[in-house]
Amino acid sequence: MSEAVENTTYTPIDLAVNSVVKVFTASSKPSIVHPWQNWLQYESTGSGFVISGRKILTNAHVVADHTFVQVRKHGSPTKYKAKVGAIGHECDLAILEIDSETFWEGMNPLEFGDIPCLDEAVTVVGYPHGGDSVSITKGAVSRVEFTEYVHGATKLLAVQVSAAIDSGNSGGPAVIGNKIVGVVLADDINAGYISFEDLQVKTVNGVQVENLRHLYEMIENCCAEDLRLDLENDQVMVLNYKDAKEATSLILEHHRISSPISKDLLQSEEIVLASLFKDASL
User: Could you tell me which InterPro entries the record lists for this protein (predicted)?
Assistant: First the structure.
């Protein structure tokens, strides 16, 4: 594998082709109620990038509870088996290792830079949901402060940028010049999961759901900025309440639901959620 050359400036295209990869994860969460068994397996995707030492850096939540992990290079149909060499849930980071020599051919490791200044131009490279190819977006640094990481629930340094970032970008690099200034983190706990369809809602913001009408009333009367839904299979969905109320017919169609929400509440929980939430698949 070729090592990064000092003072070399990579263009966003160089980063996409030679450094950033798409991560495919099959996961199965352990059951809290029945610790001797796991829940059904689900699949998710994220991003990652090559660092020195033949390692790939990504987010911990991208590979959390993994049973099988693969990575794919830009422009290649081949998925390479990866091993999680280290994981830190508090800082939401994980290191992947790949034994295949073929994978490392032509890959460039990226180097870390300093903490960026406000209004510096930044480029984000990754594989957001909604497509299969690499995405490159640009923006500026708008905030640098300590904030609570959603995955680890720990307050650590974070950089907020104006570049467009979607689910699937998690684990990709934020770059200024030829240096990494950050790893893209989820701004909500849902990033990386393909779908939450057909999962029963257990609690809303910590309050246990008694029945479908109770679920609807709690969501309608919510005064909090965010809605935290604890679902079956020990999964969690967090949505901004204002965005969640902007439901459209396209959302219903996306969830294969032909009619809008019924006022008599005779529909199932997932229909209510798909009607109330902007996109329940995040």
Answer: DEGP_PDZ, DEGP_PDZ_sf, Peptidase_S1_PA, Peptidase_S1_PA_chymotrypsin, Peptidase_S1C
Report the chain's terminal Cα–Cα distance, integer Å: 36
Q: Is-catalytic flag, 281?
A: no
Active site residue 170: yes
Separate counts of helices (H) and strands (E) for the chain = 7, 16
Q: In the annotation, is 92 catalytic?
A: yes
H helices within 64-194, ranges in order? 101-104
DSSP, collapsed to helix, strand or coil, labels residue 94 as strand
Q: For position 192, what pLDDT does the model report?
A: 37
Q: Which residue among 129, 170, 275, 279 is the active-site one? A: 170
Query: One of 19, 44, 47, 61 is an active-site residue; which one?
Result: 61
Lowest mean pLDDT across 30-44, 57-71, 107-121, 228-242 = 228-242
Nearest-angstrom CA–CA distance, 187 and 96: 22
All domains of the chain in start order, with CATH: 19-104 (2.40.10.10), 111-183 (2.40.10.10), 201-276 (3.20.190.20)
Identify the active-site residue in 19, 27, 92, 129.
92
Is the pLDDT assigned to residue 81 strictly greater than 70?
yes
Stretch (H or E) spanning 276: helix 269-276
